[in-house]
Known about the structure:
Largest sheet: 9 strands, mixed
Oligomer: single chain
Number of strands: 11
CATH topology of the largest domain: Rossmann fold
Bound molecules: nicotinamide-adenine-dinucleotide
Mean pLDDT: 94
Amino acid sequence: MTLQSSSTELTSFEGKVAVVTGGSRGIGKAICDELIKRGAKVVIGAISDKGQEVAKQYNKETGKKVAVFLRTDVSRYDDNKALFQLAENEFGGVDIAILNAATSDGSDNMFSPLDDKLEERIFNVNAVGLIKSSKVAILHMAKRGGGSIVCISSAAGFYSVPALTAYVATKHAIIGYVRSCTFLPEVCNIRVNAVCPAFVDTEFLDSVRTVGGIPEPYYDFADTVPVVPMPFIIDGVFKYLSDNTTNGETVMAYPTGLEVREAPEWHYSLLTENSLKAQDIYLKKAIPHTKQQLSRALERYENEQKKASSIQ
Ligand SMILES: NC(=O)c1ccc[n+]([C@@H]2O[C@H](COP(=O)([O-])OP(=O)(O)OC[C@H]3O[C@@H](n4cnc5c(N)ncnc54)[C@H](O)[C@@H]3O)[C@@H](O)[C@H]2O)c1
């Protein structure tokens, strides 16, 4: 399905509070620019302190406090908790989370040294880090009565790229995670979707052109492929923020525009008469069961936060 680009339609996000991971540059910064333009408050979490300048610039341009920055490593729960708590302290809560932070370090791991830490880092940032950010986001949003999470995966979440083995695996992981957030709208009024761009002209691409100082021949090809204009990615993000009917959806951003990628249906051999009956029963139990899980998670989180603030 091809969707029209709708960047001219400017829905107001006045009063909304957005946490953006990796908002210090590239795609994350472009999303922050648009959120600020539409009246939202932005909380930037990035590993690079450049996010501090970005937040300062927004405050200067608007003449009020609309943005804050916290140095954040999304692979750490403590950093994620501090980031979302900052949004609550500064702006009263969280409505939107753009989970965009990612690293390219260790993207091509097939013949890299057999080193545990080196191997795990890209997974800990791109996949596990995104899951950690989303779990903290869900707790803060559930408390507020709902919200919208947009994950930035990649075309590499669907295609294979021999020169980016580990990176591709992390981006596939995000697709599976997003598609499994099935019950959140009914449980806590939270929606999770993913935008998956093909090549975009950011500093990210520069960082993967050589591996261990040796040029990677894949980019002789990749550099000939048309890039995705940033407005298409912004359209994808704002489509999901604005459309309350979307959840667990993945949209590809191509040089020609947006195309939704449907999840494959379950294979007929898995759905027997018995399993279909059992599925109906499970679906009736799933929402109350998940609501109970959320309520326990909220209680645990609140206790942890109280304990942490009493220690400080
Ligand atoms: N550029 C592309 O061609 C392209 C294509 C498809 C998808 N993407 C995805 O888009 C997103 C943004 O990419 P970009 O091109 O703007 O890259 P970029 O390198 O310009 O920006 C990455 C951002 O993530 C932050 N970051 C890195 N590691 C972090 C960590 N551990 N904790 C917190 N922040 C961290 C950086 O500080 C930076 O702000 C990424 O998820 C990337 O995988 C990029």
